[in-house]
Design a protein that fits this description.
three-stranded antiparallel beta sheet; alpha+beta; 11 strands; 2 domains; 3 helices; Nucleoside Triphosphate Pyrophosphohydrolase
């Protein structure tokens, strides 16, 4: 068995800067192998959720919105920030309905991943919401300007492969969902 690398030692915090949706912190750290000191920066952010929402007609509910990092519109699945003390399942259901106006009959966890462990400690909780029905036009946050789009579930692969869906956290969630979907389909096909 291969041994794990040793954990680095956090010596002291240099500074922190709160940017509302995340905090950037710099630390003096020591290499556990030789004690040499370095400065490392991390981003503290809350956990997030992403939701693959499938309607009763086997369509996936997508949202298109402007993203400042790419300064362009992005085709994504619904998702958002986990509020303090909120269960991730509650966040997934809340974000889905707020952003799209769709309400699911069932929601289940697909998996949990770390968005960027090199500089972030938060997690992405990926969910599958099935039996979604449209109950209203959505109530997105004041700064969100979303356009809801429905696509056949079978079209997701082409949207990814053609570069129409490029958001890496969305891709991670879609991968988890596609594996679950393939396993489920294979189990159903067995005699």
């Amino acid at each position: 068995m291969v041994s794990e690398p040793p954990v680095w030692v956090k010596l002291r915090e240099r500074h922190a800067r709160n940017h509302h949706i995340f905090t950037v912190r710099s630390y003096d750290v020591a290499d556990p192998r030789n004690g040499q000191e370095y400065v490392r920066t991390v981003i503290d952010a809350p956990d997030w959720v992403n939701v693959v929402a499938v309607t009763t007609s086997d369509e996936v509910v997508l949202v298109r919105q402007f993203r400042f990092g790419t300064w362009a519109n992005s085709l994504e699945i619904p998702g958002g920030v986990v509020d303090p003390g909120e269960a991730t399942l509650t966040t997934a259901t809340r974000e889905l309905e707020e952003e799209t106006g769709y309400r699911p009959s069932s929601v289940r966890l697909l998996g949990v991943s770390h968005p960027n462990p090199a500089i972030q400690g938060n997690r992405l909780h990926s969910f599958l919401a099935e039996g979604c029905v449209h109950v209203h036009d959505g109530k997105p946050d004041g700064t969100e300007d979303l356009r809801v789009e429905l696509v056949p579930r079978s079209a997701l692969r082409e949207l990814v492969m053609s570069g129409q869906i490029t958001h890496s956290l969305v891709l991670a969630t879609l991968l988890l969902e596609s594996w679950r979907y393939q396993v489920s389909a294979a189990a159903t096909a067995r005699p």
